[in-house]
Amino acid sequence: QVQLVESGGGLVQPGGSLRLSCAATSSIFSRYVMAWFRQAPGKEREFVAAVDWSGGRTNYADSVKGRFTISRDSAKNTVYLQMNSLKPEDTADYYCTASVSSRTYIGAREEEYDYWGQGTQVTVSS
Questions:
Q1: Largest CB tally within 10 Å, which of 9, 35, 43, 64?
Q2: Residues 6+ apart with CB under 8 A from 74
Q3: How far is CA 22 from CA 9, 15, 85, in A?
Q4: What 8-state DSSP symbol labels residue 11?
Q5: What are φ and ψ of residue 89, in 5° steps?
């Protein structure tokens, strides 16, 4: 079964850090652009960050640039999102996703991605 499983979410104080992980069930994901999206209550899902197949190129939403870092470990079939300096506005369900159509186009639109995880909750609150 081809699957993405997110983990690492939780409750954190403003200014704190979390690292999210996305584990893929198949090494085929090593060929894909991977990304993180998030969805806050009552809002549409929005782009957070993306990384190409090699890990050498990234794309970040302006709201997280400088605070979040996306990376991948192909040997472990895992993608990470290191989140620092967290703000209450970062509270959301975070989803890992993969694009089967590209190794290099690190897009920011939902429709460009094909496989989705079930999400992990991140709550930033004092």
A1: 35
A2: 27, 30, 55
A3: 11, 23, 21
A4: E
A5: -65, -15
Q: What one-character-per-residue DSSP string does 16-74 give?
A: --EEEEEEESSGGGGGSEEEEEEE-TTS--EEEEEE-TTS--EEE-TTTTTTEEEEEEG
Tokens of 119: 């999400």
Q: How is residue 68 written in tokens?
A: 């979040």
Alpha carbons within 13 angstroms on the beta-carbon side of residue 38 total: 23
Which secondary structure element, helix H or strand E, spans residue 93, and what is its range? strand 92-99
| 3 state DSSP class of 112 | helix
Residue with token string 């996305």? 22
Beta carbons of 105 and 111 less than 8 angstroms apart: no
pLDDT tens for the chain, 126 residues long, are 679 999 999 999 999 999 999 999 988 888 999 999 999 999 999 999 999 999 999 999 999 999 999 999 988 999 999 999 999 999 999 999 999 888 889 999 999 999 999 999 999 999
